[in-house]
Amino acid sequence: MIAELAAGAMLGAGVALLVSLLAQPRPGIAATVARLERSGRRTALTRSAAGAAADGRLDRARQTIGARLESEATLRGWQLRRTRTDLAVMNRTLAHHLGTKALLGLAAFIWFPSVVTLLGYASGPGVPVVVAAVAGLAGFMLPDLQLRRDAEQRRRDFRHVVGSFLDLVAMNLAGGRGLPEALMAASSFGDHWAMVRLRQALSNARIMGWTPWESIARLGEDLGVAELRDLASALALAGDEGARIRSSLMARAESMRRKELVDVEGAAGESSQSMLLAQLLMCIAFLVFLSYPAVSQLGS
Q: What start-end ranges are recorded for coiled-coil regions in this protein (predicted)?
């Protein structure tokens, strides 16, 4: 009886921790409710405040664990360049990511063996141990896979915005502005996160005394976007030749749009092939279903 109670307690703790990790955080909800409903509904406000406090405790625990893991990685000389680049694209910190990996791995390490034990699938003590190891490793690696997928999606969005940015720079150059002024003016259009990053990079260049193309190259290096590094090289070589750089930027923007169109067509082709394969497997299964009674009768 004690083993079942302990397994149930661990199962509940694992479920609660997993739900807390996967749930979307809602920071500032208590303040929002207080501002909109200051005059009443004290019960709803109390629940919101409690939920915000729980989110705050989880974030503090994740940040503390992540900071310790980051310090340990720094002491051991682990660069984690791919992870840092993806985190820069997602605008997240390494400590937050490492804390998420540790907590999710711990939750999977506790939860899945508890489920196996509670449901009676564990024929011996070795099964929960193996399940715990596999689940913990999978939970620890899952944030990396999710991070890389999201980072690649944001890089595609960034490349799309860079094409529009180059068109805007060419338009400003045609209006008689110099190259640095055209870059800053083009980055001022829109509040998309990619435009904001470009605008911040150009503003930092003014503060640090860098050239705009040097700042763009640094941004491309931080985000892992090769198109920005190529653009910075072209801008550095162009100098003050306005007409030539204007035509070069327009050609580069057109080339980026063609490449994006090719990527989209390739992805659509892969999806079509996947659908054809799925339909073929369904047809084979249906033929097996139809022929099985006749084949079984031949055997008898």
A: none
- 115: which 2 tokens? 């489920």
Asked if 101 and 143 touch (Cβ cutoff 8 Å), the reply is yes
End-to-end CA separation in angstroms for the chain: 51
The residue with tokens 């860079």 is 162
Q: Under 8 Å CB-to-CB from 20, ≥6 apart: which residues?
A: 54, 55, 58
3 — pLDDT class (breaks 50, 70, 90)? low
Question: How far apart are alpha carbons 8 and 16 in whole angstroms?
Answer: 12
- Are 157 and 92 in contact by the 8 Å Cβ rule? The answer is no
More confident residue, 125 or 186: 186
- DSSP symbols for 68-100: HHHHHHHHHT---HHHHHHHHHHT--HHHHHHH
d(CA 245, CA 237): 9
How far apart CA 213 and CA 136 sit, in angstroms, is: 45
Q: For the whole model, what pTM was predicted?
A: 0.64
Using CA atoms, how far apart are residues 255 and 167, in angstroms rounded to an integer?
Answer: 12
Give the pair of three-digit tokens for residue 100: 């998420």
Q: What is the pLDDT of residue 239?
A: 58
Residue 262 sits at the vertex; the CA angle it makes with 256 and 267, to the nearest 5 degrees, is 125
Instruction: Report whether 104 contacts 20 (CB < 8 A).
Output: no
DSSP letter for each residue of 210-255? --HHHHHHHHHHHHT-HHHHHHHHHHHHHTT-HHHHHHHHHHHHHH
Contact 173, 242 (CB under 8 A): yes
Question: What amino acid is encoded at 226 in this protein?
Answer: A
Torsion 256-257-262-267 (CA) sign: positive
Distances 114 to 3, 12, 100, 130, 205 between C-alpha atoms, Å = 10, 9, 21, 12, 54
CB 187 within 8 A of CB 195: yes
Mean pLDDT of 3-20: 65
